[in-house]
Amino acid sequence: MRIDDTVGKDVDRKHDGALVLFNASPKESTQKLEELVGHDYSLAKSLAKGSDDRVKSTSFDSATGELTIPARTAAVLVEPQGSAK
After folding, report:
1. Left (φ > 0), alpha (ψ -120 to 50) or beta: where does 33 sit?
2. Which residue, among 14, 35, 25, has the nearest Cα to 79 in the 3D structure?
3. pLDDT value at residue 10
4. Residue 6 CB-half CA count within 13 A
5. Which tens digits make up the pLDDT trace of 17-73?
6. Which of 18, 51, 79, 83 is spaced 20 to 30 Å from 62 by Cα?
7. 8 A C-beta contact, residue 28 and residue 68
8. Could you count the other beta carbons within 10 Å of the beta carbon of residue 73?
9. Which residues are paired to 23 by β-bridges?
10. Distance in angstroms (rounded) separating the CA atoms of residues 6 and 63
11. What is the C-alpha separation between 18 and 46, in angstroms, rounded?
12. Is pLDDT above 90 for 3?
């Protein structure tokens, strides 16, 4: 799920958007989403600083739009305010 805060009224002064990811499968999942190329998503601070090493391996490549999420994981990635294309 993608939340875009760049259209209309700004509802979050810290972020331009968020991605909510779910992988219920027993295998890591990688998806390439062309529409996300150039965006600056990273793992939400509370997850990045948490104790779950599995969720910390969630990644996003801005150059290719490729998202990778480990097996049986839910994650939230955020895009800082002003960094959206």
Report:
1. beta
2. 14
3. 81
4. 14
5. 999 999 999 999 999 999 999 999 999 999 999 999 999 999 999 999 999 999 999
6. 51
7. yes
8. 20
9. 73
10. 20
11. 14
12. no
- Report if pTM > 0.85: yes
Amino acid at 76: V
Contact 14, 45 (CB under 8 A): no
Q: Tokens representing 73?
A: 């994981």
Residues 58 and 76 sit within 8 Å (Cβ to Cβ): no
Integer Cα distance of 44 and 77 in angstroms = 5
More confident call, 67 vs 9: 67
32 Cβ contact list (under 8 Å, min separation 6): 64, 65, 66, 67
